[in-house]
Amino acid sequence: MTNLHCNIAGIDSINPFWLASAPPTDKYINVKRAFDAGWGGVVWKTLGIDPPVINTSSRYGVHHDRSRGILGINNIELISDRPLAINLAEIEQIRREYPDRVVIGSMMAPIEKSAWQELAVKIANSGVHGLELNFGCPHGMCERGMGSAIGQVPEMVEQVTRWVRQAVDLPVFTKLTPNITNILWSAEAAQRGGCHGLALINTVNSITSVDLDLMAPTPTVDGKGTHGGYCGSAVKPIALNMVAEIARNAETKQMTISAIGGIETWRDAAEFIALGASGLQVCTAAMLYGFRIVEDMKAGLQNFMAEKGYAHLDDFRGKAVANTVDWNDLNLNFDSKAFIKQAQCIGCGRCHIACEDTSHQAIRFDTNSQGLRRFTVLDDHCVGCNLCAHVCPVPDCIEMRTVDNGQPRLTWPQHPKNPLRTDVPVSKNTEV
Amino acid sequence: MTKFSKSQINQNFDDLHKPLNRLQAITEASRCTYCYEAPCITACPTSIDIPTFIHQIRSENIKGAAQTILSENILGGTCARACPTEILCEQACVRNHDQGKPVEIGLLQRFAVDTFLDADQPHPFKRAEPSGKRVAAVGAGPAGLAFAHRAALLGHQVVIFEAEAKPGGLNEYGLAAYKMANNFAQREVDFLMQVGGIEIQHSQRLGDNLSLAQLRQDFDGVFIGVGLAANHQLGIPGENLPGVEDATNFIATLRQTADKSSLPAGENLVVIGGGNTAIDAAVQAKRLGSANVTLVYRRGEEYMGATAWEIDLARKNGVVILLWAKPIAIHGGDAAAAIVLEKTALLEGTLQGTGNTLTIPADKVLKAVGQKYALADEPSLDLAKGKIWVNERFETNLPGVFAGGDCVHLGEDLTVQAVEHGKRAAHAMGRYLFTISALEI
Hints:
The complex is a heterodimer of chains A (432) and B (441). Chain A is α/β, with parallel strands linked by helices and 432 residues long.
């Protein structure tokens, strides 16, 4: 029997799926509907110091695929635009009504010790399980010296985290912005500041499109637009890498991670857990499909775990971390070749033209006398780049097959062609 | 007595396939894999760059999509409606192999062309500098129109001589009404004529008030695209009774009647033949309100000239298909009343009557046993298989006289094939005129 119950930075949760701090967690009715749908917890939409902010009309931009599916959206909405007291009263109410669900208070304040500490205490008194420090918001709030304006300066990340830790006796998550050069600098700063967990990634700074009639970026507000925070499926690869960077870094690998970034399905969730995440936060998928999507996330994750024999999330948490290495640790003697399964090939030629024009001219195109189109890999030319397998419209039609070339593992630091070679390869005979 | 109301009948002749809306088109376009050297292009007689135009629909460059289509096939709007795509582009689609269903190329082509025409844009093609040449086209059907447009683009002045009162040929008179709803044939001709340099003269019939010899004198080049204007006959007793007519005539009347509910629908209608014309006649008769429509074909279904899709359409419309039977007589007093059929069988490889007969009521008999080239008495043109002989450059045996479309011995009798013939003949004639000019200098 599989069990999704988990503990995230000391907080028990019936499942790892929390709604991230955003419009879906803006008020009582949304959160109630989320809990009724089965979400394990919510991070309440970011609370600030009164008076509340004003939000614009026209808030979201979109990046569609060609079938009107959504790859990502961005937003220029600020933090909660309702008075703090109303938010806190609703948090108290929801805590009473759903005692088994997690409520985290997300917060943001100007860079003053008293502002952060006083707000932290107020939110803590509403009964939340923990606090999340929003250092990530890349639009609007940063122009007021908050959000990513803090998150982009490691010293401020550390300082503010420490202030909040001193003020309250609750688990504290520091939420990181991806709009930096190296995620480890802010992760380590948060650790020095004493956070119990990291939440990442916040949204990516972006312009989703330009309205070519208005000649303005979208979303447009009265003819003008601004950069906003990009989220959804498209940012998942960025988030996976940043989570992995923290999970495999000696200084930070013990840190608890609540992963955020384009989680839409159980598979996305499993991938973040495999890279070391303890919890998961979702926003865009819920905004696109409603809270019901958590049902398949839970069921799919459990089915995956049952199939693999994992009883608990901890059984596979971080299992992919050891295999996430620097490029220098890759085996340069590894060899794979594309193999086209002719029975599944529909003859579209996409593999051929991709390889011919942009790769290694390794796929031959023949047409026989009956007009049958046949594509064959020229092993001598194939470098095993995977491009053909990716562009093929038929899943599993092109298989990348490992070539057993009898050669030992050889990395770049060991490679004879490396002028700065320091390492001497282990001979195959002596390998265990 | 018809069983349909007036509005129902006219609705019956509206678009058979509903056109795609923008979202449907973009969604369907996304099924296209954008094949390299795509099989659908090879399967299209006019070699339209189908993956490119579909990609352009997907990127919402609809104008570009229409230009891609029309640059190869100026009658792309009709072909999108009338082509038997199930045996052409869509049969070749690779999506048949993994999804069991081709991309709806015909409907996408219609979307692109219709969207372009609806936007009322300037004609998308520019003519070359005047060549100083005058060329003639005989017949304003698909072949003649395609020839004329391409010849005009090459800089020639073109005069089309058309026997009928309207241009379009089979597009106007021959295709089923539900394939060409809303007067599309004329709309398309209007669009084509916008290129400039083309004049159409009507009621000009070769062998009647028009002579090939005179045309050769008056013009630098002549293109013949007269189609197949005569019908094969049954050669059976009773064939001349009122109520017996050529299916092509029945269809032409139907196409030229704005209010189709004013046409009489026979109670018992019999169509003889197994090609797409027979199907078009039978289905339209049914939609007009005929109570019993029987299509009689002398062989088995697998031998029918109509595509499987058309045969299925007939059955769905309630047409009874009677196979392995041939007409031997039509009975009636003042008009047809019944038809006598003899069952047939293949005996030692030849089709023979079995001697078993049946008689079915038939107050209307439509003959659709094939059309033939009608100018066999134009003695100067060499024929092959009963049609005009041409070489691979669409040249007849007469210098400067080219021919294409259904009236020549090459290719299949398809609208799209005729368009390709006209287009290629225009280029071939251009090379011919250039060569002649060079010799004259």
